[in-house]
Amino acid sequence: xxxxxxxxxxxxxxxxxxxxxxxxxxxxxxxxxxxxxxxxxxxxxxxxxxxxxxxxxxxxxxxxxxxxxxxxxxxxxxxxxxxxxxxxxxxxxxxxxxxxxxxxxxxxxxxxxxxxxxxxxxxxxxxxxxxxxxxxxxxxxxxxxxxxxxxxxxxxxxxxxxxxxxxxxxxxxxxxxxxxxxxxxxxxxxxxxxxxxxxxxxxxxxxxxxxxxxxxxxxxxxxxxxxxxxxxxxxxxxxxxxxxxxxxxxxxxxxxxxxxxxxxxxxxxxxxxxxxxxxxxxxx
Length: 284
Hints:
Number of domains: 1
Shape: globular
Strand order of the largest sheet: 1-2-3-4-5-6-7-8
CATH architecture: Alpha-Beta Barrel
Mean pLDDT: 93
């Protein structure tokens, strides 16, 4: 099976009322874990790579790994660029085999974000690649931020409406209280804001920073229109924690396969659990 676009998966999710997991990869073991979990759950899945992952693994390697996975898979798989801020790299992904790209201009003024996103949409659409953009600021954990500052970082519903209308983007990542990285305390999601955004925009909503968000909150977000849910930190934790445990148990082991296999299996279990929460199991 060939790789599909994220739009294809999210359109189906919109009709079915469920969410699709977008899991970040950095190496072969993570790609294998994502696909194995999705196969076991009979779920569509999005494999995504950040700019850092591409720098680490190489764009050609990421694409080749995901093409190999899709070729032998019985479930639909999309390959997505996560948080592309470099226009040159976004275009490289569009022409290099990614089936979806995110241009992240959320740190730029609204007008500039619109202009750059619109340009990416035009290029991507010509290549039959789907697009995602972000509105609002989603950083790491910011425990010192006060209520008014937190509110200012959130996505404005009216701006979201204008942004989607003016750019033609296929999906929109919004800031409603999640953050990247591990949470010290459970996040407080602004569901009222999400509901307003969903009522004003016509495209699927994306939730970044979803590792550590309680399962019930994720289900509520999905019921309010979130269709793509990004997970990275929980996968890294499962991989690294298990790898450390295995190395401690087997300090003299020099066969990386014997150390990496349990770490890969730990990721499979985390991803399966997320897929079940998102409701995409059985939807392949």
